[in-house]
Structures are given as structure tokens and as C-alpha cells.
Amino acid sequence: MKKIVVALDGHSSCGKSTTAKQVAKELGYAYIDTGAMYRAVTLYFLEHYVDLTNPKKVQEALNNIEVTFHRNPKTGRNEVFLNGLNVEDEIRKMYISDKVSEVSVLPAVRHAMVAEQKKMGKRRGVVMDGRDIGTAVFPDAEVKVFMTAEVEIRARRRQQELFEKKQMVPFDDIVENLKKRDFIDSTRAESPLRRAEDAHLLDTSYITIDEQVDFVLDLVASALLQRELAQ
């Protein structure tokens, strides 16, 4: 059966990555965490003191960045590598979260990452989560879902994630970070965060991960059936 593209967009900490990983596993598809790519770029920019207001310096930095995903045989998860170095844990830290929207808003950064994402999904059979997958990266994706949740619930989830990684961050700080990222992501000129017209809305505030996964898998089953009937 011909494979398709599943695009999951939405706000931070609403369960996109967890859902996308499980959906990809169930389908036998590749999972691509596009947010991690922007986090890796942010890490590079911070480590190399790249001036975000200087387009030339930004482009020079991008020319020296290679972001790849490699499966960890011990954990079974895809991990992010920046220029050959495993940065999976580092890019999840709060100081990256504080800056990633400021970096990802830059047109040059988005152009570079979108180009890479399109290459990764060219053969279909992928589940991608991010902010602009269904609108900019794969507007022809067969399944599009826009995920959201109440900000306080998202903040509690994010705080729990950080706690499990031994990072203690005040709840109010996380709420403000999420609100700031939502605003920057939704108002940027280049590929803003928005729901595609043909995307299914999924509010994850009061449902389980299994219910989220089932919601997406039902859409995939319907899309595959429609494709088969149309042939």
C-alpha cells in the first residue's frame, strides 16, 4: 500500500511529539521531530554567539550546520545530532526553550530547515510534527492535525518533563515561556503557526495519549481507504 505523509502541527507541550512517535511506530513510518531541528540550530547559534540581527552571520552559521537523526539501539528512540554530536538532551533544556522561537522566526533559518524537512519526507511514509508542516512543509499531506491544549495544562506537562530530567523550573516561568513562544510562532511573517484549512482540530487538554494516537490513526486509516478506492 502506498505510504502517505502525516502532519501534526500545534502549540508547544500539547503532546505532538509523543503522539507522532507512537503513530509512526504503529504505521512503521519514519518520525521526524522538526522542532528538534530548530532547537539544534538554536544551540549552535548560542554556542557560537551568532548575532540574530546580522543576516550574513546567520547564513554563514547555517552553512556550517548539519542536523541529523539517528536511532539509539538501546532506547529505540531517534536522537538529534548536531554536526555529528549527540545533542538530544541538551536541546531539551529550558535555556534553549527560551530562545528557540527567536531563532526559528528568522526567514533564513526557516528556509533552510523547511528545505531539509521536504527532503526527509520526499518518499512519503513519514510522520512529522512541528508548527508549519501542514501549511508550509507538506501542504499536500494526506493527513493533517492541529493540536492544542489549555496553556496551564501544557505548562504542567512541560514542568513534569523537566522534572523527570532533573530540571527544576517554576511553574509561572514555564507558563510565560509558552505564552511567549505561542505569540512569536503565531505572529511571525515566515510560516506562522496556524491551523491549515483542511487540518483536523485535536484539543488534548482532557484526553489521554492513547486517545490522541487513536484519533490520528483513524484519520490515517480513512485516508488510506479513500486512496485505495480512488485507484
UniProtKB/TrEMBL annotation:
It holds the Pfam family Cytidylate_kin. Residues 6-220 form the Cytidylate kinase domain. It catalyses: dCMP + ATP = dCDP + ADP; CMP + ATP = CDP + ADP. Its main location: cytoplasm. Its EC number is 2.7.4.25. One of its GO terms (biological process) is pyrimidine nucleotide metabolic process. ATP binds at G10, H11, S12, S13, C14, G15, K16, S17, T18. NCBIfam families: cmk. This is Cytidylate kinase. It comes from Rufibacter hautae.
